[in-house]
Amino acid sequence: MERECLECGAKIVGRIDKKFCSDACRNSYNNRINKDSKNLIRNTNNRLRKNYRILEGLNPKDKTKVSRAKLIEKGFDFNYFTSIYTTKVGTVYYFVYDQGYLPLEGDYYALVKRDG
């Protein structure tokens, strides 16, 4: 029984469970199959990275106050964060990794950095 490469259709020589004729074909096949999910993950990670850099840049001393307008001006996207922390009294902090923000009155935000 002659086996063919799943990517290019070339004849496969070697182990009986081999599916591709080369590493290049294996990579091409897997990249094509996973393209949609990889794009979603890449786009989400890019937005999280951008949000992190904005928070980190505006919060050099680990605690500060900033306006919503300033965050938006820098390109911050409030739809992307990694976790939510609710205190015992019900205060809700949104975090992008260790950089967090707390909505305040008057369209301001407290920026904080979580320890370790």
Q: Can you give keywords for this protein?
A:
elongated; alpha+beta; 116 residues; 5 strands; single chain; five-stranded antiparallel beta sheet
Please tell me about this protein's structure.
The protein has about 120 residues and is of the alpha+beta class. It has a domain at about 35-115. Helices cover about 35% and strands about 20% of the residues. It contains three helices and five strands; from the N terminus they run ααβαββββ. Strands 1-5-4-3-2 form a five-stranded antiparallel beta sheet. β2 (about 85) and β3 form a beta hairpin. The mean pLDDT is about 95.
Helix content: 25-40%
Per DSSP E runs of 2 or more residues, the count of β-strands stands at: 5
Tell me the structural class.
Answer: alpha+beta
Measured by DSSP, the beta-strand proportion falls in: 15-25%
CA-CA gap between termini? 58 Å
Over all CA atoms, what is the radius of gyration?
A: 23 Å
How would the global form be characterised? Answer: elongated
Q: Characterize the main sheet.
A: 5 strands, antiparallel
Order of helices and strands: HHEHEEEE
Low-confidence stretches: none
Protein name: DUF2116 family Zn-ribbon domain-containing protein
Organism: Seonamhaeicola marinus
List the helices and strands and how they pair.
Blueprint: H1 23-33, H2 35-58, E1 63-67, H3 68-74, E2 83-86, E3 92-96, E4 99-104, E5 108-113
Antiparallel strand pairs: 1-5, 2-3, 3-4, 4-5
Q: Summary?
A:
The protein is of the alpha+beta class and 116 residues long.
